[in-house]
Amino acid sequence: MKKLIAVALITMAILAPIFANGAKEETSGETVFTVASSCDYPPLEYIDDNGNMVGYEIDLLNEIAKVTGVKFEIYNVAFDGIIAGIQGGQYDIGASGFTVTEDRAQVVNFTEPDGAFTLSIVTQIGTEGLVDEKSLIGKKVGVQIGTTCQFACEEAGLTVSAYDEAPSAILDLANGNIDAVVIDNVVANDFVFNNESYAKVLKISGSFSNEDIMAIAVSKKKPEALKVINEGLKVLKENGKMEELKAKYNFYF
Questions:
Q1: What is residue 14's predicted lDDT score, i.e. its pLDDT?
Q2: How far apart are CA 96 and CA 35, in angstroms?
């Protein structure tokens, strides 16, 4: 993934007192839900050249807002703090390419799936043989902290270097400081095929033997948010808008 411009993260410490009560009703009577998203993960969530939060899931939420009449206030925060922020009441929702896992499902609710992906292995062009989990044993592998990429690598017994943001791992790989990066395939495709600089240096050399389901995380204290998002997703699937957004962001595997 690329980090298109430097973004100052809004910390939970600042947001906590502001959004301690989660969803609220504006003076217009509009229901508003707060959303945490780590916008360093294109094409799912990222910052464009104009400083706007964009991406597949960002657009998805905007479309859900149109068909349901609610409003989403989206904040750019560090990925590894999103689930804790939802638990603590700072945010109602987390939209950040979340893989549905049993551990996460114990502390948050998940919407109906909004995508799926595998884990890709990214290496420098010229590197050979790093094609699956076993071939990465003994290698230095970069991952984003708190992601299922990290969990999968650790379960496979790999030595990982955990980064706050995926772009930092990719940059370290391009500079030759690590041997590989394990990352969601749709994001790997964005780095390797859509970034001119990295396309000359990096390649997708293999993948893990997995298929992960992606969904939006919702506070267990906000069943109304879960309901409205699922209703919106149903409409977007039926009217073809979800497939349109997947095509727009090349979100296929």
A1: 31
A2: 10
> pTM above the 0.90 mark?
no
Non-local CB neighbours of 91 within 8 Å, separated by 6+ positions: 15, 19, 22, 34, 35, 36, 75, 77, 82, 85, 219
Does residue 167 contact residue 181 with C-beta atoms inside 8 Å? Answer: no
Instruction: Please answer whether residues 102 and 182 qualify as being in contact, where contact means their C-beta atoms are separated by less than 8 angstroms.
Output: no
Q: What is the DSSP string of 17-85?
A: HHSTT-SEE-TTS-EEEEEEE--EETTTEEE-TTS-EESHHHHHHHHHHHHH--EEEEEE--GGGHHHH
What digits encode the pLDDT tens for the residues 157-187?
999 999 999 999 999 999 999 999 999 999 9
Cα separation, 247 vs 187, whole angstroms: 14
Q: Which two tokens stand for residue 144?
A: 């984003």
Q: Are 120 and 188 in contact (CB under 8 A)?
A: yes
Residue 114 in 3-state DSSP?
Answer: coil
Q: If 0-12 CB within 10 Å is exposed, 13-18 middle and 19+ buried, where does residue 36 land?
A: buried
Contacts of 49 (CB under 8 A, 6+ apart): 4, 5
User: Which domains, ranges and CATH numbers included, belong to the chain?
Assistant: 12-115+214-248 (3.40.190.10), 119-207 (3.40.190.10)
Q: Is 154:195 a contact under the CB 8 Å cutoff?
A: no
| Cβ proximity of 192 and 124 under 8 Å | no
Among the listed residues 181, 130, 151, the one whose alpha carbon sits nearest the alpha carbon of residue 80 = 151
Query: How do residues 109-132 score in pLDDT, each as one tens digit?
Result: 999 999 998 999 999 999 999 999
Phi-psi region of 224 (alpha: psi -120 to 50; beta: other; left: phi over 0): alpha
